[in-house]
Amino acid sequence: MTTTRDQAAAKARQVLGVDAVEPHPDSELEDDAVCGGFAFLAGDVAAIIGHRGGYQTSLLEESGETIETLILGWLVEQRHEYGIAAPVGATHPCPICGTPTAHEDRYPAAVCADCQRRAADLDGRRIVGYNEGFGGGLIVFYAESPSGPQTEIAGDVLETGRCWIDGIACTITEARFGGVVVQRAD
After folding, report:
1. What DSSP character marks residue 7?
2. What is the mean pLDDT of residues 120-132?
3. Partners of 184 in the beta sheet?
4. Is the pLDDT of residue 148 over 90?
5. DSSP readout, 44-103?
6. How far apart are alpha carbons 55 and 49 in whole angstroms?
């Protein structure tokens, strides 16, 4: 699904709960057909509405963030999630497989998207992490369970914040500005 600027503006007004938004053009964000979208400002709040319909918001002043850092964070997270090989900005080798991975100082041991998809509990059951809702919060499901895909909460992983990739201990946490980050533990 490709969202137009007008559709994105309407969604930005809705998710920010405002009557008017101002576009914040950014060529890298708008030109990325897979991971990009449109950025909007409304006073000290901002929203990015992805071309595929997802979104992220920020209380800029309260979070100490700028629209530029919101855009950069969006691109890094989306490219990581979609496994895009050319991350924005600095990279570090994935601590599991060595693949170049988008680097954020806050998450120096973050794993690549392929390794994150292999994350499992101690018994080897594959897991998937999400934000619980708009306000954040971490929820972790088993990728497969008898009642269907992603219907059973991975309680031990959620309680301990620990998961494993190829037998290597990792942590799974909520990312500061939304999303989920898996990092090598040692």
Report:
1. H
2. 91
3. 170
4. no
5. TEEEEEETTS-EEEEEHHHHT--HHHHHHHHHHHHHHHTT-SS-SS-EEE-TTT--EEE-
6. 4
State residue 19's pLDDT score: 95
The Cα 184–Cα 90 span in angstroms is: 18
Paired tokens of 11: 């969604």
**Starting at the edge strand that comes first in sequence, how are the strands of the sheet with 162-165 ordered?**
162-165, 168-174, 180-184
In the structure encoding, which two tokens stand for residue 39, read together?
Answer: 């950025």
The pair phi, psi for residue 132, each rounded to 5°, is -65, -30
C-alpha to C-alpha distances, 64 to 19, 32, 59, 182, nearest whole angstrom: 24, 26, 8, 24
What is the tally of helices (H) and strands (E) in the chain? 6, 11
